[in-house]
Amino acid sequence: MSGERSGDGRLAPPSPPQPPAPPASPEPFARRTRKQQQAHTRTCLLHSAAKLFTRKGMQQASIDEIAQDAGFTKGAFYANFKNKEELFLAMLDERFAERFEEIDRVVHQDATIEDQARQAGVDFIRAIRADEQWSRLFFEFAVYASRNEEFRQELVTRHRALRAKIAALFEERARQLDWTPPISAAEASRMTFAMANGVALEQLLEPEAKSAELYGTMLTTFFTGLRATES
Question: Which of 3.40.50.1220, 1.10.10.60, 3.10.490.10, 1.10.260.40 would CATH assign to domain 33-81?
């Protein structure tokens, strides 16, 4: 672009280019509330614990290591959990809540009970494959519970609570079908738990096997058999 003319008519040299304006400073992140920070700390500790438990084993992974891996102090660990067992139970509560939500969703789909059973089997294996370290961790703590009575009771309490919720779904579905099963809802729930644990172990030992189809077939066969032997 040409420069402007000066008072004597001569062209003034063009003005030097101006540097671009600096970008606006980003707004500071909103500060977490105390409750949000505590939830964030717990999540980080749970994630680090799962990773270290899987890599080193529950007994070998120390609380110091868990806190350090999560980026917190040992005091932060004890502000959230009494010990490693309590931390694992918090993990278990989360996983059980997720599994129940999946089962509840399937049960309330517009489908036959056999199709619902098949879908529940597929969903269960999909969840296991998405988080294989959880299966390893669960079985390790199950063995630990067999040697620690206090921890075993905590684990059993949670198992019974989830089985009771699934039994309630089973009873609800039976009422919808005007069906009187030959076994109690509690027994049916416990049987499906036993099958799930067995298939989870098979999936852990032989991940290349078609476990999704296997568990879906098991559940379908189970409920088809129950329907064929109404009381």
Answer: 1.10.10.60
Q: Are 138 and 88 in contact (CB under 8 A)?
A: no
Q: What token pair was written down for 127? A: 């969840």
pTM value is: 0.78
Could you tell me if 37 and 54 are in contact, meaning their C-beta atoms sit under 8 angstroms apart? no
Helix axes 63-70, 84-107, angle to 10 degrees: 60
The type of residue at 59 is: Q
Q: In the chain, which residue ranges form alpha helices assigned H by DSSP?
A: 34-56, 63-70, 74-80, 84-107, 113-130, 132-145, 149-176, 185-205, 211-228
Q: What angle do CA 151, 204, 90 make, to 5 degrees?
A: 30
Token duo for residue 208: 């290349």
Superfamily for the 83-228 domain: Tetracycline Repressor, domain 2 (1.10.357.10)
The whole-number pLDDT of residue 202 equals 87
* Domain coordinates in residue numbering, the chain: 33-81, 83-228
Q: Which two tokens stand for residue 179?
A: 């069906």
- For residues 182 and 171, the answer to whether their CB atoms sit within 8 Å is no
- Those residues with Cβ within 8 angstroms of residue 222's Cβ, 6 or more apart along the chain or in another chain: 117, 191, 192, 195
pLDDT, block means (10 residues), the chain with 231 residues: 44 42 42 86 94 90 97 96 96 93 92 91 86 88 95 96 96 93 96 92 83 83 88 54
